[in-house]
Structure formats: C-alpha cells, structure tokens
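Exercise 7. Given the encoded structure of a 1401-residue chain, write a plausible sequence.
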C-alpha cells in the first residue's frame, strides 16, 4: 500500500504563471543508463542538459528519473543480505557489509585511477627529454656530445604529452563518477536502514537514543561517506604514487638526494599518525555534543509555542548555547589539529625540495636543468598525494566514527514480534491476554532486579518501575469494552500492551485481525485532510462521506475554502484539538478494521460533539466491530458489554455495567453515587439518537489560496550565490581578520612559486652562466633554503589563522540562526515543516562547521596557483599568450554555463533533502500509530521516494562535475601542447632553466585549473548552506522582546482586560478569525469562554499573548495598550495552562522553574498543592527526577498538573486556561478547578473549556461563534434565554445534567458558595476536599443541595444526581455523599478516569 503523501516543496515547484511550462526530462529514463560508450566516456549525454539549465530555471521535475541501479529500493535490497550475515558475527560492522555489497563496483574505479596515476608520470619523463632536446638544439654543430636528432622531435613530444594527459583525464572522470556514486550509495543505504530501524525500535531502545541523535546519523554521519569517497582513491593510490615518484627521482638525480628527501618523509609519518589519531578522538567527542545540541534544538522547535507563551526564550537559548559552547570548543581543537596536520604535510614537499636540491648540488656541484626540473615535476606529483593525505585522514577518522555510530544504532533491540499460541488460527478476531505482566523497559527492569539481589538485607531497594501486573483480558466479536480508571492507573498502558509497545515479561498476549488505533494525542500527517483520513486506502465516495458524517466533520469542511483538500500543517497546526481528534477517529473508521482501540478520543471534543461521535460512530458505525475504548466519560459505561476498571497497574474489577453494580465494590459505589444505577436499558439499545446543532450559519470563506496548501514550497534563490552571502560569511568570523588570512594565502603561493623560480635562476646561472647575477653558488643555495623555510613558516601561520577564523565564523552564524528562529513569529513555524528547520541546524550547519572552510581554502590555493602558473608560463614563452587568450575565453564560457547547472542542482539537492527529515520527524511522532495500522512498508516507500528525489539532484550534479572536468582538462592539456610547441619554435633563444620551469608548471596546470574550477563550483554549492541559513537569519521577526516603554513593576496591578474592536487573522491575505471583538473584563473576574470548534476561543489567547498581532483594534490590560510593551514584559506577567501539556527533557525542577527563581521549598509547596508531592518523592532524584523527551515518562494528567504548578509559581494577576483539562480525567479536572479557586482568588481568570461545569460558576461567560461575540453575561442571565447558544450547549449535555448546570448558575447568581464533592484519588493516595453544591434546600434537578451548616442531609432524593463533571475516586474517606452523575446520552466527561504513565505519541 502506497502511503498518500503531499509532496510539498518538491513535486510542483511551479514556475511563474506567465512563463511557458517546460517539461524538461520529466518522467523520462536516465540518458546515462541508455547512452553509447563514447558518450559515456566524454559525458556527452549531458550537453543538452547544460544548455537547458542555461536557458531555464531548473526545477526538480525537469530532471530525469534515476537509473534503476541507483534507486533506494534497489540499494537497500542489495545490502540487506550482507547486513544479515554481519549481524550473526560476534562484532558486526555495517561498514564491512557495505564493502561486501558495493566493494566490487567501487574497485572498477581503481582500474581507471591506476591508468590516470600512470599517465601523471609520462609528462615528467617527456619533460626531461624536452629539456635535453632544447639543450642539444642549442649546441653548435660539431660540439662534442651533440647528437643528431629530428628537428621536429619537440612537436612529437608535444603530441605525446597531450595524448597521455587526455587518456589520464578520460580515466580520472570515470573513476570519479564511480567513487561519487559509491559514496552516495552508502549515504542512501544508511538513510534507508536507519529509517527502517526507527520503525522497529523497542521502547527501551528509544530511551537510549533521541530524534536529534537519529537525525544526526541520517544527515551528518551519512554525509561523511560522500565526502570520503570523493577523495578515497587519492588516498588509496597515494602510497604507490609516492613510491613511484621516489624511484623516478632516484633515476633523475641519484639515490643520495632521493634518500635524503625520503628520510624526511619517513620522519614526518609518525607525526601524521599522531595528528590523525587525535582528529579521530576529537571527532568522536564532537558528534556527541552535536547530538545533544540537535536534540535540545529539536525539542525547542517542537514546543516553540509554549516557550513563547511562557517567555522562556532566554532559558532555552542558554541550554542550546551551553551545548554549542562545548561543541565549538571541540571544533577549535579539531581545526587546530587539522591545521597542524596540513602544515606538516604541506611543508613536506617544500622542505623535501629544498633538502633534495641542496643535497644534489652538494653532491654533484652542478644543477642539470633536465634532471632538476624532471625532479621538480616528480615533487609536484608528490605534493598532490601528500597534500590530500591529511584531508583524507581527517575524513577517514570521521567516517570511522560515523560507521561505528550507524552500527551501534542498527544493533539496538527491536520491538518483539508477537508470538502466537497453537490454537491461534481457531480464535475469532479480537484481543487475548492471559496472566500477563508488562513493563515499559525490560532492560531497566532486569537491571533493577539485579541490583536488588546484589544488595544486602536492610539496604534500600531500587524504586520499582511502573508495570502492568496479572492482566487477564479478552474481547472478541461485535462488542464495546470500556477501560476506566484514575490518573496513573494504567489505562493507556493496557492499550499500549495490546499494541505490543510494552515489553511482555510473562504470560501471553496476542491479537487477531486488523487493528485501527486512535491515540490519546492525535497524530496528523502533513498532507491534505482527505489524505489524513484515507491514509493510503482507495477513495470510496459514499463510504468517505458517511465517515465524515459520523465523525462530525462535515461542518468543519464547510469552514475550509478548499474543503477536504486543505493542507494540514505539521502536527496539525491549523486544526483545533477537537478537529485533530475527529480526523484521527475518521482515519480509524475509514480503515474498516476488525479491532478498534480508542485511547480517550472524546476528551478533546465538545460535549455535544462527543455525544454525536459516541452514538453515531462508536456504538453506531462500529457496532459490528470489536471496540476497546479508554474513556473518561462514565455516562457511556452502560453501553459497554464489558467494563475494565484499572487501579495501580492491575485490573481491580471487570464485568458488565449491571455486574459491576451488583458486585457492590468500590466502582459500583461510585456508579451509584453518580446516579448511574438509574440508567435506562431501552435508551442504551436505541440507535436513533437525535443530535441537533445550534450555531450561526457561517458563510464559506473566500478562496484565497487556490491549491489549499498551508506549507509553502521551500524558499529558493536563483542565479549565483550573491556577493552579500560571501560577505556575510567573511564578516561572521571577522572581515579584517579574513583579509589578513587572504593576504597570507597569496603570500604562501607567491613564496612557493618564487622558490621554484629561484631554482631555475640558480640553474641558469650555475650551469649556463645565464641570469646576470654575481652571487656565488653557496649564496644561491642559502637564499634557496631561506626562501623554502620562509614558505613553510608562512604556510603554517596561514593555516592556523584561517581555520581559527573559520570556527569563529561558524560559531557566529549558529548564534544568529538560533536567535533569529527564537524571534520568528508563530505563523512562521505553522507554515514551515520542522524537518526543514532542523535541516538548517544539521546538514547546513555541519557544512559551515566542517566543509566550507576546507573548500574555500582549497579554492584560494588552487586559484592563486593557476594565476601564478599562467604568469610564469607567459613570461617564459610570451607566444603562448596567443592561444592562451581563446583558451581562457572558452574556459570562462564553460564555467559560466556550468554554474547555471551546478548551483541550481545544489539548491534543489538542499531543498529535496528537507522532506526526508520532515517525513522522518513525522514518523517518529506517529510511530505507535504507524505500527498499529501496519503501514511501515508504505512509509518506507515514501522515504525511498523522497531519497530518490534527492539523489536525482545529487547524482546529476556529480555527472555535471565530470562533464566540466573533462572539458577543462582538454583546455589544460592544450596549454601543455602549445607550451611544448612554442618552446620548440623558440628553442634557440629560450633560457635552458626556464624550459624546465615552464614545462613543469604547464604539466601541473591541467590538474590545478580543473581543481580550481571544480573547487569554485564546490565552494559555491557549499555556500548554499550559508545562503539558506542567512535566509532564516533575515527572516520574519516578531515584535521586540523589550521596548523603550516598560510596564510598571507591579503591572498588571488589577488584571482588567479590554478588547477594543479586535480583528485578527493568522496571516496577511487570510480571512479574519476574530471579527471585531469588543468587551471589557473586570479585575479579578472569572470569565468562561465557550463556543464550537473554530469559533475563535483559542485565538483570543493568541491575541492576549500577542502570538499573533492584531490586524485592527487593540487589547488593553489595566488600561495599557499591550502593543506598546515588549513581548517579554507582556508574557512574563501573564500565565497560561495550555491545551497540550508540554514537558521538556531534563529534570522536573527545570520544567517547573527553568530560571531557578524560586527555592526548593517553594517548589515542594507547589507540588503539594497540585498533589504530586508523593509521586515525585517516590521517584529517583525527587525534584530532580528525570523527565524524558516530550514528558513521555509522565501521564498526560500528571503533565497537566505540572503545567498548573508552573502557573502557581508565577502568582500572576491574569491566568488563562486554554482547554487545560480537555485531555484529563475528572479527578484531575476537579483538582485543577479547586486549586484555581483557592490559589487564584485575586486573579483575573479566562477559562476555555469543553466541560461546562468548569465554567458554570464563572462571573460571566463569553460565547463565541464564527469569530464574533454571540453572548456575554453571567451564566444565569444567559440561561434565561432559551434560544441562546449557551442554553443550547447546556441542553445538549442531557436533561438531568442540564438541570444541574442551570442550578449551578442559579446558585452563583444568588451568591451561594458552590463546591463540587469528589471522593479522593487513589493513585496519589491523598484526600481531595469534597465538591458539592451547598444550599438550604434540595434541588429538583437531582443535585444534592446543602447548607454550609448541614452537609449531610438530602441523601434520599428520588431524583437522579446528575453532575458528571466531578472528581471521583476509590476512596471512602470523604465526609459527605457524592452528589453528581451522568445521564445516559450526555456528552459530558467522566468522574472516574485518567491517563496513565505511558509513552504514547
């Protein structure tokens, strides 16, 4: 099954509409795969592509399909067998498996490279002969030693040099393409295998790693293989080249000078080894800190909304800065050791040259031009392998670390495949668990037990890890099984155990049939709303629209201009919590599975919507299915065929609704207390539930964005990387300092060139008496040694200066990038995929940290060397300028054409990389859902598709590099040819020493010209990383954190809020969400905010905190316009308990008080108030107990209580509860309400709620509909209007509960103290004060009404108690009778259930 994914950013990077649409090679086969041999050797098949790129702006769909042997699926299939064999070995190695798979293909490149390497030595041999030819030609006839020779021999040498060089060039680029392809293969299989492995990780394995760590492996570590294989043949053949060079040196100048030079090289080898080892160690440490930085960054970006609401930017910036500082420290160490290695290796050729020629002169007393310039050419050849050696060593060190990290990750334990009993095939579809014990981390459980066994009697035992114990559970056939229980009792854990997410320690657990799963926190993919529901299933119009109806999504689709084709952003950012949950339910229903597992799906929706979904969907559409429903709504218990009551990780009670009542145990008492014993069986069996809707008819918004896309295509520059980008990079490390570094580069090249020229001048003067100098030979020697040593010193200083500057630049760029993103407005994060942003902090930042500096330095070295070479050749043979002019023009034209291709391919490669990481991040967030639906393979195929798109760009770019290289070599080889020709023409007048110098430099120009050009392109493509980062640095910025206008220290003193004609839209060009809201909220007033999904409830909060700036109108707090204050001053003086409880990895104390503004005693006091002190005390570390990423080791209810603790610590004057209790059980809800009433009595409170009981005692209620104020008055006054929206919402909760809610409003109006009475909560083993409505007489609604002086009467009411919105518990320690219950058709929430300590996504 192919998972339907919206190919944002890539599939249709559309060109401007006024331009003609050009297809290019869309969906065509790769021309490389089907071309002839000549075209393959010359890369002629790419000519038309280069011309196309020059005439058009290249888009992804213009590029041909990958060759079949390059596709991700093919590569993964090839390595699969080799890796399976490796895993059977005692010490598996992913690198060995990769070598076995792709090694034979890569070895083909060795044949080509060997021919190229051999061709390098033909030139020096012919050079020596050319010098002897010129010398012989200048000897007068009859001179002893003169031999007869063909006067045209020089031309023959020219042709021979040109021919051998061209053969070498053809072979080199075939070798390069194979190497590039192999490196890309290795990167691709790492991305594929790491992604595949991520889908299989067990819970214990996930605790050992993090998304940031995995992303780092997929991006930076995998990239190391590409970098290494681009140079690996240089390393492999460096030793043979060195050996051959030494042999030929011996032949040219004798064994003594050669031995001296060789001895110096040997002495340097141990230093190379020490430096290389140190580089490996530093790199190994550095990637650990990089992982930590990316992990923290990823977590911050995922929770950026919460960080902004709390004004915690500074605290989290410090976290990242702390990690980055350690990473930068390692970067400096790495840079200096690398510089040391480069200095050491770069100094060797110069030092060897000085030593060799000094020894040669001392031994022979002569400087034969033919010998010394042949030797000089061999030394230049020697310079190449020695120059690349440190780079290759450094990259090999990084690759070794990367390969080990990949191996370690792939060897992590996987989630266990289910085992089946012998009679499995005889069983019906359903779930079967027998005598089972589950834990979240079997490894940690075993470690704990081992430690306990090792401890002596009396020693404190390890704290027990949460587990499910003695679970016996079976449900089959058409049935509804409800799982209820309090916070931390294990409800969600039992769901996860069924799905196989928990480790089975003992017993049996299996299921049969296809499963559909609705998680507690909805998982939404970045695709259209339709694709989210279909989830890879084929479209069935009738079925699809029926699903929309039963899941109450029809009206929501009317609100979207594009209907169900509207694109849903990452993590469902443009959907409300209720909409996300209904989409998640619709996906499950459309899936048409056998077994449905629904983990508390109704808590996030309004009461009347919950009733609709329960009756139309859960007991309607799914009546023929096996349904397991974890619920917080006890009013639905009578509809269940089986009820499972969880307590402390065990099943405390089970049975039907009637059996639980008859058992007379704790849960049955709760059912009686809440009036559930009065349930009408006939009503439970009724399928026809009439559900009405009362809301203003909304006019369909104007279609602004025709294609329905929320996520915009990734930003992409066109044309060359601008000078401003280079200047940004140069200035980041210090512009003046870079200028000094650049001057040192030029001085370094100049000194090396001058050293060679001096040798030529010395040779002419000593051997032929030419040059006109009066210096002695010894003086020549000493000057030569001095220049050589000066060159070495300059090179050393240049390297240390430059690489130190580069680290400063990367440090500054990262600081600016992170700072810019913290300051970006919320809409930026809503419309930008997380993977795209993370790509800046991984691949792009890695490029700035490690790659750009090397590329830029090599470009400057090669470019300056080419300029120096051309100057030398032009001085010696001026006639060469004649053919050189057109050659240079052709060279510039080629480079010009090529740059259009290379830079656009590089940009597309960068853009096409982001979806890989976005998809991966999305996968990790929905891992449990993906496993439950068994869509791993479709997600793997989606990963392959995105990787293939990326590889289309990368491999095409590599082919274009070879296309350019072979054409540049042709030009360079022509320079050699013409140099020989003009030396032959001018053989009677040219200086003998200059012949050797000219030819030796001409022989090197081919390689240097090619490398300079490719390095220029490579530098530009790598600068694309800086360009992409700078784009974000200069991106949108929200208002200033601090302005010149500062609020008073005690502001807001009162907490009065005024909305003055507030109009708000999420982004420019969109329809307004709030449409002229005007209202006044008095100081210390408690205001409830209600309205249907999409009415604008949460948007008011965004306006108050200025997460979105007002389009029109203003918001005043205590009479002060909040827009004039800085965001930090505003947000730190407000408090919010958000809809989604967000925790950060670290300690509990850091989550409560990240700035450490409060003492431990204050924090413990808060924990006691929110009744978590005993839970925290029982955890290892107490206040500093571990909070895992996303708070996964805490239940949702506990997370919400921690968020309440944050607000309590701040002691604000204005508190906002944004559906803060939507996802928690009624115990937690009532606890939060009770704490708020007591602790925030002098605070202005705005409460957005689904549960009407939480706001019915408010001073006033604001009813919103379609972004406008529908009603705003006291609850009692609003309920006097029977046709009002609040009255309708209250009536929708059911006849009995609506009477109770109306009574609450009446008591509030009459000034009677309202207090709900729950029993206490078992998980935290603490008593919670009872909640009841106190009055002097009983209520006709069935609620027990007590006077403060008479709390024990009126227990014999004949009417059914009705409040479903109260806390409940197993405990019997309360002093009063519980007084509330639920009606059978009510959509309100449960008095007795909660969340479990789970790791659901």
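Solution.
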């Amino acid at each position: 099954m192919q998972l339907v994914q919206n190919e944002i950013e890539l599939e249709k990077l559309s060109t401007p509409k006024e331009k003609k649409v050009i297809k290019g090679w869309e969906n065509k086969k790769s021309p490389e795969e089907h071309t002839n041999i000549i075209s393959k050797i010359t890369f002629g098949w790419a000519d038309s592509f280069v011309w196309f790129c020059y005439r058009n702006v290249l888009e992804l769909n213009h590029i041909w399909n990958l060759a079949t042997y390059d596709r991700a699926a093919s590569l993964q299939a090839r390595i699969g067998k080799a890796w399976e064999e490796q895993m059977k070995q005692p010490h598996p190695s992913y690198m060995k498996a990769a070598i076995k798979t792709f090694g034979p293909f890569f070895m083909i490149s060795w044949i080509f490279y060997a021919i190229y390497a051999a061709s390098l030595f033909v030139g020096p041999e012919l050079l020596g002969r050319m010098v002897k030819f010129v010398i012989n030609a200048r000897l007068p006839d009859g001179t002893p030693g003169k031999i007869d020779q063909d006067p045209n021999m020089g031309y023959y040498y020219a042709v021979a040099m040109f021919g051998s060089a061209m053969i070498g060039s053809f072979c080199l680029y075939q070798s390069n393409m194979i190497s590039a392809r192999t490196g890309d293969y290795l990167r691709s299989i790492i991305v594929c295998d790491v992604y595949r492995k991520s889908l299989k990780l067990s819970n214990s394995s996930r605790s050992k790693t993090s998304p940031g760590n995995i992303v780092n492996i997929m991006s930076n570590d995998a990239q190391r293989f590409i970098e290494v294989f681009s140079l690996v043949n240089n390393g492999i053949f460096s030793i043979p080249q060195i050996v051959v060079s030494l042999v030929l040196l011996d032949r040219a100048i004798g064994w003594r000078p050669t031995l001296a030079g060789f001895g110096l090289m040997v002495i340097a080898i141990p230093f190379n080894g020490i430096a290389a080892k140190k580089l490996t160690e530093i790199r190994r440490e550095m990637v650990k800190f990089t992982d930590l930085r990316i992990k923290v960054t990823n977590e911050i970006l995922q929770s950026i909304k919460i960080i902004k609401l709390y004004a915690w930017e500074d605290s989290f910036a410090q976290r990242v800065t702390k990690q980055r500082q350690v990473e930068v420290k390692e970067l400096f160490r790495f840079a200096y050791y690398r510089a040391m290695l480069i200095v050491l290796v770069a100094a060797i050729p110069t030092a060897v040259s000085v030593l060799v020629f000094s020894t040669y002169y001392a031994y022979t007393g002569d400087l034969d031009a033919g010998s010394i310039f042949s030797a000089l050419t061999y030394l230049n050849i020697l310079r190449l392998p020695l120059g690349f050696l440190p780079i290759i060593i450094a990259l090999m060190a990084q690759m070794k670390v990367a390969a080990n990290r990949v191996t370690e990750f792939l060897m992590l334990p996987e989630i266990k495949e289910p085992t089946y009993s012998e009679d499995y095939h005889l069983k019906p579809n359903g779930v079967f668990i027998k005598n089972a014990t589950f834990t979240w981390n079997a490894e940690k459980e075993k470690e704990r037990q081992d430690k306990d066994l090792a401890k002596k009697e009396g020693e404190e035992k390890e704290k027990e890890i949460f587990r499910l114990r003695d679970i016996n559970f079976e449900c089959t056939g058409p049935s509804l099984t409800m799982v209820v229980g309090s916070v931390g009792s294990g409800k969600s854990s039992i769901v996860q155990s069924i799905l196989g997410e928990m480790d089975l320690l003992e017993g049996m657990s299996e299921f049969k049939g296809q499963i559909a799963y609705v998680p507690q926190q909805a998982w939404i993919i970045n695709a259209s709303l339709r694709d989210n529901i279909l989830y890879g299933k084929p479209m069935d119009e009738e079925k699809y629209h029926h699903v929309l109806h039963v899941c109450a999504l029809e009206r929501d689709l009317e609100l979207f201009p594009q209907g169900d084709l509207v694109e849903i952003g990452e993590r469902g950012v443009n959907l409300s919590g209720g909409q996300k949950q209904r989409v998640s339910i619709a996906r499950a229903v459309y899936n048409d599975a056998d077994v449905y597992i629904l983990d508390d799906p109704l808590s996030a929706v309004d009461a009347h919507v919950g009733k609709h979904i329960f009756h139309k969907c859960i007991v309607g559409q799914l009546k023929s299915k096996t349904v397991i429903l974890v619920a917080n709504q006890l009013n639905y218990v009578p509809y269940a065929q089986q009820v499972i009551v969880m307590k402390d990780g065990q099943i405390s009670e089970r049975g039907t609704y009637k059996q639980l009542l008859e058992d007379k145990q704790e849960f049955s008492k709760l059912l009686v207390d809440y009036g559930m014993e009065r349930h009408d069986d006939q009503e439970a069996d009724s399928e026809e539930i009439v559900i009405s809707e009362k809301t203003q008819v909304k006019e369909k918004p104007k279609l602004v964005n025709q294609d329905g896309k929320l996520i915009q295509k990734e930003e992409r520059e066109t044309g060359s990387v601008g000078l401003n980008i280079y200047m940004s990079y140069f200035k980041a490390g210090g512009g003046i300092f870079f200028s000094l570094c650049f001057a040192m580069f030029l001085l370094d090249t100049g000194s090396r060139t001058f050293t060679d020229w001096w040798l030529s001048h010395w040779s002419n003067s000593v051997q032929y008496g030419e040059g006109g100098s009066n210096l002695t030979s010894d003086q020549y020697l000493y000057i030569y040694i001095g220049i050589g040593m000066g060159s070495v010193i300059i090179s050393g200083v240049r390297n240390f200066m430059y690489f130190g500057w580069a680290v400063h630049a990367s440090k500054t760029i990262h600081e600016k990038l992170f700072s810019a993103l913290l300051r970006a407005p919320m809409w930026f994060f809503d419309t930008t995929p997380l993977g795209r942003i993370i790509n800046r902090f991984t691949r792009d930042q890695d490029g700035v940290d490690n790659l750009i500096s090397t590329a830029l330095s090599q470009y400057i070295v090669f470019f300056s060397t080419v300029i120096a070479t051309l100057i030398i050749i032009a001085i010696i043979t001026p006639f060469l300028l004649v053919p050189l002019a057109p050659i240079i023009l052709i060279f510039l034209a080629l480079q010009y054409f090529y740059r259009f291709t290379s830079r656009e391919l590089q940009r597309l490669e960068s853009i096409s990389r982001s979806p890989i990481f976005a998809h991966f991040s999305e996968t990790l967030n929905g891992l449990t859902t993906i496993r439950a639906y068994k869509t791993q393979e479709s997600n793997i195929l989606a990963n392959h598709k995105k990787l293939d798109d990326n590889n289309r760009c990368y491999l095409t770019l590599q082919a274009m590099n070879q296309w350019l290289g072979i054409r540049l070599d042709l030009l360079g080889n022509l320079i050699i040819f013409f140099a020989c020709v003009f030396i032959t023409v001018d053989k009677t007048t040219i200086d003998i020493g200059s012949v050797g110098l000219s030819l030796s430099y001409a022989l090197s120009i081919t390689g240097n010209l090619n490398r300079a050009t490719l390095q220029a392109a490579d530098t530009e493509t790598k600068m694309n990383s800086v360009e992409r980062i700078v784009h974000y640095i200069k991106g949108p910025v929200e208002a200033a954190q601090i302005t010149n206008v500062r609020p008073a220290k005690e502001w807001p003193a009162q907490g009065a809020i005024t909305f003055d004609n507030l109009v708000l839209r999420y982004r420019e060009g969109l329809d307004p969400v709030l449409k002229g809201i005007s209202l006044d909220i008095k100081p210390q007033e408690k205001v409830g905010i209600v309205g249907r999904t999409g009415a604008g409830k949460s948007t008011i909060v965004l306006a108050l905190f200025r997460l979105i700036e007002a389009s029109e109108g203003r918001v005043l707090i205590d009479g002060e316009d909040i827009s004039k204050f800085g965001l930090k001053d505003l947000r730190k003086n407000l408090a919010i308990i958000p809809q989604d409880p967000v925790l950060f990895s670290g300690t509990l104390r850091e989550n409560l008080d990240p700035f450490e503004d409060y003492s431990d005693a204050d924090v413990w006091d808060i924990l006691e108030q929110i009744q978590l002190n005993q839970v925290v005390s029982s955890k290892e570390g107490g206040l500093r107990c571990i909070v895992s990423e996303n708070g996964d080791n805490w239940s949702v209810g506990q997370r919400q209580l921690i968020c309440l603790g944050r607000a309590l610590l701040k002691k604000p004057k204005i508190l906002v509860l944004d559906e803060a209790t939507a996802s928690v059980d009624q115990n937690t809800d009532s606890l939060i309400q009770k704490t708020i009433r007591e602790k925030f009595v002098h605070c202005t409170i705005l409460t957005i709620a689904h549960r009407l009981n939480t706001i019915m005692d408010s001073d006033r209620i604001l009813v919103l509909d379609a972004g406008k104020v529908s009603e705003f008055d006291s609850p009692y006054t609003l309920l006097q209007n029977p046709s009002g929206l609040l009255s309708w919402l209250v009536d929708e909760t059911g006849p009995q509960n609506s009477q109770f809610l109306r009574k609450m409003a009446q008591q509030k109006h009459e000034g009677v103290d309202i207090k709900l009475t729950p029993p206490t909560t078992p998980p935290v083993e603490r008593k919670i004060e009872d909640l009841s409505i106190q009055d002097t007489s009983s209520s006709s609604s069935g609620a027990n009404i007590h006077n403060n002086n008479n709390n024990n009467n009126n227990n014999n009411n004949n009417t059914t108690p009705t409040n479903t919105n109260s806390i409940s518990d197993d405990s019997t320690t309360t002093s009063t009778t519980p007084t509330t219950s639920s009606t059978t058709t009510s959509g309100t929430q449960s008095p007795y259930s909660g969340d479990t300590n789970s790791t659901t996504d």
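Remark. The first strand starts at residue 430 and ends at 439. Students should compare their own answers with the one above.
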